[in-house]
Design a protein that fits this description.
Elements lengths: L14 H11 L5 H22 L16 H6 E15 L2 E18 L8 H5 L7 E5 L1 H7 L13 H22 L3 E6 L13 H15 L9 E6 L15 H10 L4 E5 L19 E7 L9 H11 L8 E5 L15 H19 L1
Helix pairs in contact: 1-2, 2-10, 5-6, 5-7, 6-7, 7-8
């Protein structure tokens, strides 16, 4: 799968879908009624992606509340809590209500993590499709609570083994269904970049957990596994900053995926020098187009940045995308319209076509 116009996965939820999900939570409509509204919204989202010329299609993550909830809904032993978390944007820092999860019991999978997402999507398009999953390294790191999780798991490593095994089984099930592009999303790596970076031990465990989820997976020809290294994405705000240098060599050599999706939409991501550590058989998707603003980047500027990256990795192993999804959290989508979102995808497709075709 050599397409050069990619995107991360999530799309802005239409207002009707957000309303329907609230009504379902309140018990005002049935699961079947919500599913029908999701289906219609996904159909329109696929049409918008196809019209943009982007190289891969997703369902916009329209069946999820946020990037984590597929795993949470499928697995027992996890409880939610809420608090105010600082986020950063062009207007400064502010706090938003965050929903966190903690492992409070032994994990037991009840249903598929992404079951039922692929078949409907492929009924709508003949283009390559992508299914996204939360990375197990993030789950191990962020779902552990001292004094709680350690009552049911003897160590973080024991929890890591369980979440990696569940994720690997889901990857294998998706491949068996015919999915050709599976992406792990991990916003946790940003904690090991820049000021106040976390411990090396914790980073190593995160990378090794993600690596365990893809280790030994049998991939038919044409199947792509990918890892998106996220820096936080909600309401056009972000959480982390810092160049990839502290983690690049270890991460790129440890997690055996085919494609790394990296955020490079502004100066907080540092330079392209860490790309020299990407193994020869792997590719990099440059997230040069911001999903956090409706302003379209000049095509010439994007091409110059691609050329700068090509000083460290062959141009043929590069691709282009927005730096993150447009709505990693359903009710916290970025501050642009649906039309502006698809204009961003069209820009990605146009620049990719002029660069690689």
């Amino acid at each position: 799968m050599a397409f050069h116009a990619d995107h991360i996965g999530s799309l802005l939820r239409p207002p009707d879908l957000l309303t329907a999900r609230r009504r379902r939570a309140a018990g005002e409509i049935s699961a079947g009624e919500l599913r029908a509204i999701e289906d219609e919204a996904i159909k329109e989202a696929v049409a918008g992606q196809e019209a943009s010329g982007i190289g891969v299609i997703t369902d916009g993550e329209f069946r999820r509340q946020d990037f984590r909830t597929g795993f949470v809904a499928a697995v027992d032993g996890i409880e939610m809590s809420s608090w105010e978390m600082p986020w950063h944007g062009s207007a400064g820092a502010r706090k938003l209500t965050a929903h966190g999860f903690a492992v409070t019991g032994r994990l037991k999978q009840r249903e598929r993590v992404a079951g039922g997402e692929y078949s409907y999507l492929t009924s709508l398009t003949s283009a390559p499709v992508k299914v996204t999953l939360i990375a197990p390294g993030f789950l191990e790191d962020k779902f552990w609570r001292d004094g709680v999780t350690d009552k049911v798991y003897s160590s973080r490593e024991e929890l890591a083994a369980d979440v990696a095994a569940i994720t690997r089984a889901e990857i294998e099930a998706l491949i068996a269904e015919g999915v050709s592009y599976i992406q792990l999303d991990n916003p946790g790596y940003g904690s090991y970049l820049g000021p106040g970076a976390g411990s090396r031990e914790a980073f190593d465990r995160m990378a090794e957990t993600d690596a365990a989820a893809v280790a030994g997976v049998t991939k038919p020809d044409g199947v792509v596994l990918a890892l998106h290294i996220c820096r936080g994405n909600q309401s056009s705000m972000w959480m982390s900053e810092g160049a990839y240098d502290p983690i690049a060599e270890k991460l790129f050599s440890t997690v055996d995926v085919d494609r790394f999706l990296l955020e490079y939409d502004d100066e907080r991501s540092g330079g392209f020098e860490p790309l020299r550590y990407v193994p020869a058989a792997k590719s990099v998707v440059l997230g040069l187009v911001t999903s956090k603003s409706p302003v379209l980047e000049p095509a010439g500027s994007l091409r110059r940045r691609i050329d700068e990256a090509a000083a460290y990795i062959d141009l043929g192993r590069l691709a282009l995308s927005p730096q993150c999804g447009f709505a990693s959290v359903a009710e916290g989508g970025n501050q642009l319209t649906e039309a502006e979102q698809f204009a961003k995808l069209r820009l990605v497709a146009d620049v990719a076509r002029s660069t690689w075709n």
